Backbone:
């Protein structure tokens, strides 16, 4: 397990480099938007990765509440942290693209608003984790994760009532996409998912180590052994 | 079942009696929302024709802020003399305690709304152009939406440092769809263009979903130690 992490990290780096090459040089230029459109290869994979991580967080939270397994809690923490990072990338790259294409930085459209609210919920999740005492944190955080997951469909429906401006989803949304573009997009998604997995993996091991250290320290302080 | 309702009733009447004698929460909420109304009137021109368009937002934001004042005090009373610990070891069901607290807050915020709504009408020169009776279900469902999650998150933030600030940080992101529904429904009813039914149904869905979630998960939060 320890050996495989560096190997996986190297594979991820190669994949990221290849995906970058594909996105910048190989993918065809979009006819109306020009080179600005290439941000799409970062924006969309980040969004998919972030949503995937938030879903992992929900599943891990439910498992924690049922089984009380501390490893599930570590997975929930890690996926929320990395998910917030990827969600931030989505929220930053979106306006950079929207300004030249739509002429505005931001609009209160259904996907933008839902993503923003999701980001807000998970930031409050991380704040809760930071502010509560260590022994109760996992339970409270898991409960909040479930509340957040219940909230997302309601947010979606509440904004669904307004006209939407965001481009239709490229897959399963009726929009059409050039096959070569789709190919580049999927490679980028794979690369970004691997990157997210690598970061989660490292962070998970760090979290487990940190908990082990805390446990040893508290045991030693109970025994009164000099440090 | 009768034990749940009797425990709920006992806790609720105790809380209301305490509040009636001190009137701490109600007075501070009233004064606070009055201040919000006055400050808003300086930020926006209340005599403008658009006041009807933005009044729904102003009313609910004022009530949301005022409700946080009351919600923060919900559990503080039970921490003194370890009442909450005593409750935790007693065989009384946790949901009874939660329902009593949520109902107590609901009554408190409803009284606030009943007192403040006429004042809003006067200060912002409002006249209801749509079906006015629809404001009642919006007010009831909206207040419950704020209060049920607020009571729950107030119990959650008991276990955190700087709990006064934690409550809004947890409550506001989750409340976004509820606040949007209340504001839109109120705006539609006040201005009389369109039907508010979609928003009332959404508010009802929100209430049902989160009341169920609160009842199912409150035991976990109460016993978290």
Residues:
């Amino acid at each position: 397990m320890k050996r495989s992490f560096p190997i996986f990290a190297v594979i991820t780096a190669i994949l990221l480099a290849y995906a970058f090459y594909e996105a910048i040089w190989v993918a065809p230029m979009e006819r109306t938007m020009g080179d600005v459109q290439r941000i799409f290869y970062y924006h969309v994979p980040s969004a998919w990765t972030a949503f995937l991580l938030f879903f992992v967080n929900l599943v891990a939270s439910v498992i924690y509440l049922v089984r009380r397994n501390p490893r599930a809690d570590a997975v929930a923490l890690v996926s929320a942290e990395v998910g917030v990072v990827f969600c931030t990338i989505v929220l930053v790259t979106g306006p950079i693209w929207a300004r030249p294409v739509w002429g505005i930085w931001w609009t209160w459209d259904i996907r933008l608003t839902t993503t923003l609210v999701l980001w807000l919920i998970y930031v409050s999740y991380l704040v809760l984790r930071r502010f509560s005492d260590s022994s109760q944190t996992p339970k409270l955080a898991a409960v909040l994760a479930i509340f957040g997951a219940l909230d997302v469909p309601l947010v979606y429906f509440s904004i669904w009532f307004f006209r939407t401006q965001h481009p239709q989803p490229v897959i399963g949304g009726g929009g059409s996409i050039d096959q070569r573009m789709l190919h580049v997009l999927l490679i980028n998604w794979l690369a970004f998912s691997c990157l997210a997995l690598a970061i989660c993996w490292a962070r998970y091991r760090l979290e487990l180590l940190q908990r082990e250290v805390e446990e040893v320290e508290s045991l030693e302080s109970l025994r009164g052994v000099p440090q | 079942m009768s034990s749940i309702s009797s425990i709920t009733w006992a806790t609720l009447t105790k809380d209301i009696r305490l509040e009636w004698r001190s009137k701490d929460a109600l007075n501070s909420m009233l004064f606070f929302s009055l201040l919000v109304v006055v400050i808003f009137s300086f930020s926006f021109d209340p005599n403008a024709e658009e006041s009807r368009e933005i009044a729904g937002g102003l009313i609910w934001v004022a009530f949301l802020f005022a409700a946080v004042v009351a919600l923060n005090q919900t559990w503080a009373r039970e921490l003194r003399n370890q009442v909450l610990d005593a409750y935790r070891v007693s065989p009384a069901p946790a949901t009874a305690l939660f329902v009593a607290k949520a109902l107590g807050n609901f009554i408190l915020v409803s009284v606030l709304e009943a007192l403040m709504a006429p004042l809003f009408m006067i200060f912002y020169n409002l006249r209801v152009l749509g079906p006015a009776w629809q404001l009642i279900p919006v007010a009831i469902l909206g207040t419950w939406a704020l209060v049920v999650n607020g009571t729950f998150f107030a119990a959650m933030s008991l276990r955190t440092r700087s709990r006064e600030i934690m409550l809004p940080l947890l409550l506001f992101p989750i409340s976004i769809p509820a606040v949007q529904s209340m504001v839109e429904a109120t705006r539609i009813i006040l201005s009389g263009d369109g039907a508010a039914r979609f928003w009332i149904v959404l508010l009802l869905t929100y209430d049902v979903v989160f009341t169920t979630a609160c009842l199912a998960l409150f035991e976990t939060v109460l016993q978290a130690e």
